[in-house]
Amino acid sequence: MSTLAEHAGGRLLLERKDGVARIILNAPDKLNAMNLAMWLALGDVCLALAADDSLRVVTIEGAGDRAFAVGADISEFGTTRNSAEAAATYNAAVSRAEEAIEAMPVPTIALIRGFCIGGGLEIAMRCDLRLARDDAQFAITPAKLSLGYGYDGIALLERRLGHATTADLLFSARRMKADEALAKGICDRVFPADRFTDEARAYVTTLAGNAPLSIRAVKAALVDLAKPQAARDPSQARALALACFDSADYQEGQAAFAEKRPPRFEGR
Q: Would you identify the family this protein belongs to, as annotated (predicted)?
């Protein structure tokens, strides 16, 4: 059964079905530019999803065919970023949402059509994987606006992409097409437009059908490894991995293999 909930005045949608949560950035009239209400809602939704043990996969996408998201809604900066205090409040909402995505205990996948610019690319890079349609374009453009790009955002890009690609994105502020973005590791798979929806759905379905306890253990390790060395604590990931061997799903996996049938995992 599918459920659909509206947040941020309908500018962010959450659809739930069969263990998959689909977050939709729903401002196609503005190429899904993120306003403050959307950033706050994105953080709220991700924190709530993280507490749901039945969840298998989270996807994030933009409404319509033209854009994943083109960054911040600049039209509201006169009210939401019109002082140092207001800017700090805005930045805290952005950081909270992005950190909630990165800390999600299940796989997160950005499904990218069209423009993925600025804050949109930041959201996508916080996900574990990025699947792109072949018309996707990627850029981060503070150098065209004389904006200071935050240290944490640079650190994330450098960790994911390396020094040279991060420098290229931020120094040039140029748009990269999907084939170049794939080669540079900005996205992980690219599909033709006429196959994108089906291929993305098939991949998400594959992840949702795999053993959730195993995947949560892997994700816990990945979240920990993303931290600075001094802040890491592998105990939770190790405990989750060991717990798999005491699970009913472990027995189901062995039985399904012996009986040559697909396993039916229940996350216990």
A: Belongs to the enoyl-CoA hydratase/isomerase family.
